[in-house]
Design goal:
EC 1.17.8.1; oxidoreductase activity; Polyamine Oxidase, Chain A, domain 2; protoporphyrinogen ix oxidase, domain 3; globular; FAD/NAD(P)-binding domain; 14 helices; 6-stranded mixed beta sheet; 3 domains; 5-stranded antiparallel beta sheet; Zeta_carotene_desat/Oxidored; binds flavin-adenine dinucleotide; alpha+beta
Length: about 425
């Protein structure tokens, strides 16, 4: 297609922003329609009692190459915006894995060998387990869960490392989560290039991490961005596609799966039925104020079980956020959503007091919590995800689209880049 192709992007989350930036960079005329009054989708900032908080605490890793490339493309200073630290799953009692800096594979081996609170047999068992999956090319039967994948992994290493990584990356409990998707993430992170396994923690609110810079970049290049506009109807034929009867040469649908299923019901009933069949996993984020509390590092792993909801905690003050403010994250949170807000709040306060008795000076105050019931799709074994190409004039982007990654920022951005490549 020649310069001046009219492209509509429906949905201004990170997938839609990636698609819009790439379509614009390719010389197309881009219109972006977003239903909400702001861009960012699930990865956006929210205001609460005068504080700017994130819709949910987000973690990026060094292996998010396309997300980092997109941030740089729209002019962000990535090193300033993200706090980089080697992969560390350290618990409040000081136990846990801490990888040294440097090339990923030797760093993983050195980190495991230096994991002091893990018996020697378990350290070697974990390395042997990882080496075996590497030899198998990080492939497992599609029906395998993470728990089955880790059957030969030493129990203590499984509980302190594999289970928390699974719930953090896939937002799905290990007994239900796809072993293959976790293997893909482990391959890219632990066996990728130097820095791939590093944790990248936002030092800015999510809006200032991509949506603000991306929208400035797009507007400066003539893109049309319409906020507060819910697209109601799409059509597509051989000559083009339309958005609420406005003609375009190509449309990229970058909404969550349920809304994509509605919009595409007439264009591709089969695609629409598959997207409507997704099941979801919630995430709860709670914010607490704990004056004069200092953690040894900005992110702590927490022991979660039937009484303790959160798997991770973040010191937002140390990350440039509001002072004395901490975020607790409950991934794969379905049991806690069922338990109700009061029970979850009480359990989180108890968990905090139990985990941080020595570092808390003064009363801990509950600020707020936020439950995203459809935070991500449930990343289960053999899950059939729908393809990006629905029609020659219409492609789909979003973290739910067919791809190797779980529902993450990187999955969303990759799908957006790919959808823009399909234009023409
Ligand atoms: C609490 C929480 C914590 C998370 N933590 C992490 C993490 O640590 N690391 C990580 O990588 N990922 C994390 N994720 C996942 C990540 O946020 C998502 O994978 C990603 O944001 C999905 O982007 P998307 O563009 O595919 O979809 P969305 O962000 O859902 O964007 C879709 C957009 O489409 C708009 N829209 C819908 N219908 C219409 C319509 N008809 N017309 C116009 N616009 C429409 C919506 O308003 C929305 O803005 C987390 C998610 C949540 C909710």
């Amino acid at each position: 297609m020649s310069e001046g192709v009219r492209v509509a992007v429906v949905g201004g989350g990170w997938a839609g922003l990636a698609a819009a930036v790439h379509a614009c960079a390719a010389g197309h005329r881009v219109s972006l329609f977003e239903m909400a009054p702001q861009l960012g989708g699930r990865a956006r900032s929210v205001r609460k009692d005068g504080l700017t908080l994130d819709n949910g605490q987000h973690i990026l890793i060094g292996a998010y190459v396309q997300t980092l490339a997109l941030m740089r493309q729209v002019g962000m200073d990535v090193e300033a915006a993200l706090h980089r630290m080697p992969l560390t799953l350290q618990y409040p009692d000081g136990s846990g894995l801490r990888l040294p800096a440097g090339p990923a594979l030797p760093a993983f081996a050195r980190g495991v060998l230096g994991w002091r609170d893990l018996p020697w047999g378990d350290r070697l068992g974990l390395l042997w387990w990882a080496a075996r999956w590497r030899l198998r090319g990080f492939r497992c039967p599609p029906s395998m869960t993470v728990a089955e994948l880790a059957r030969r992994c030493p129990r203590r290493a499984y509980q302190a490392l594999i289970e928390p990584l699974s719930v953090a990356a896939l937002n799905t409990p290990a007994e239900q989560a796809s072993g293959q998707v976790l293997l893909t993430v482990l391959r890219d992170a632990l066996f990728g290039p130097p820095g791939a396994a590093d944790l990248l923690l936002p030092r800015r609110p999510l809006d200032a991490l991509l949506p603000d810079d991306a929208s400035r970049w797009l507007r400066a290049r003539g893109a049309h961005i319409e906020l507060g506009r819910r697209v109601m109807r799409l059509t597509a034929d051989d000559t083009g596609a339309s958005v609420d009867d406005e003609p375009f040469d190509h449309v990229i649908v970058a909404t969550p799966p349920g809304e994509a299923a509605r919009l595409l019901a007439d264009i591709s009933p089969a695609w629409s039925a598959a997207a409507a069949a997704f099941t979801y996993q919630p995430i709860i984020t709670a914010w607490l104020r704990a004056p004069q509390t200092r953690w040894p590092q900005t992110m702590m792993a927490l022991r979660a079980d039937g009484l303790r909801p959160a798997q991770f905690g973040f010191d937002l003050g140390a990350l440039g956020g509001p002072a004395d403010t901490f975020a607790l994250v409950v991934s794969g949170a379905a049991p806690w959503v069922s338990a109700g807000a009061d029970a979850t709040r009480m359990a989180l306060m108890n968990q905090w007091e139990e985990a941080f008795p020595a570092t808390t000076h003064g009363p801990v105050e509950w600020i707020a919590s936020r439950t995203e019931k459809r935070a991500t799709f449930a990343c289960t074994p053999g899950l059939k995800r729908s393809p990006a190409r629905v029609h020659p004039r219409l492609t789909v982007a979003g973290d739910h689209v067919e791809g190797p990654y779980p529902a993450t920022l990187e999955g969303a951005v990759r799908s957006g880049v790919e959808a823009a490549r399909c234009i023409g």
